[in-house]
Amino acid sequence: MGNLLHNIPTYLLYFILFNIIVVNIGMFLVFIYNIPVFINSEKNNRIRNIFSEILSEIILLENYENTEKIKILKKLKVQKNRRIRTIFIKVLKEYTIFLKSTEFATLTDVYKSLGLHLKDIKDLDSIFSTRVLEALDRLNRFKIVVNRAKIKKLQKHKNPDIRELANAYTLNIYDSEDIYEFFDFTTEPFTPWQQLEYFQLITNRPLAPKADFGKWINPKYESSIISLSLDLVAYYHQETAIEPIHSMIKIDHTKIRRKMIRTLGILNQKQSIDVLMDQYLEEDDMKCKKEIVKSLGYMGYKNEKVIHFLEELLKTEFHTNFRKAILIALSRATGSESILENKIYRYELEKTVPDEQKIL
After folding, report:
1. Which residue in 149, 188, 332, 349 has a CA-CA distance of 20 to 30 Å to 357?
2. Does residue 110 register a pLDDT over 70?
């Protein structure tokens, strides 16, 4: 071990030692910073109860800005004492979870009237990720508009949690055309949770500007971005995305390919019929084939080419569930969806499927 240390260059040992010291000093400072919040727990609980009572009364009062309640909060040093402010913010956050509309707006005004939003905006520049996350979460919750350049910087932060929250804040707060910019510079895949979160934030703001999401249906983008864009294209029924989907539909990523096929079915445009039929002949994935059949059923109403294609499939496909999908698509294409005709189709299905296939 001694020989190993002896062979390490002196400057490298100094560098390692320096980093160990810096890390430990940082952890010690964080510990010191948080000490006031953890001591005097009984006293903290009393203060917490006072804040809870004050906020309850404020919610019920009108013209609260001129009431004694706000003055009491200021006298309790919510603005100046970090321990007091931390306790108050926790109580305030708990109230916002359960309150909506007018009551929520009242709490937002309390937060702003005490100048707490200014402290949070300042904390966005902190070197401590936890402080940045907590501040950004409150600013997002209370819908406080922050300088766009500051949030753009956070969208490229080294901490992935900060990047995610900054993206969510952007979609939740701003109304500018550049709110989807992070689709372009994101290199790491969105998690399933992030895809759902961003989708809901976008679709829950009907008045916010909408991009042509088809432009991100492009192989140069990460697959999760393409997947989210497909969801948005389908939701907003953006027919401009049809050509980008056609050009990418042979992508190796099976789940993305399946979603592209499904999206074409939702868009329901006849120019996709030939593309889907050609894709079916090359397709190896059974789930993708089923999506093609379903999509053709929607877009092939009274289309002889589609009807003939589906009828021919019945002669070659014997898997029971798949044949059912073909028959449903065929009934849509032919417009024969009466109960009687469906029974006839099902009878024909059972009659033509070989016995060895019926267990599948």
Report:
1. 332
2. yes
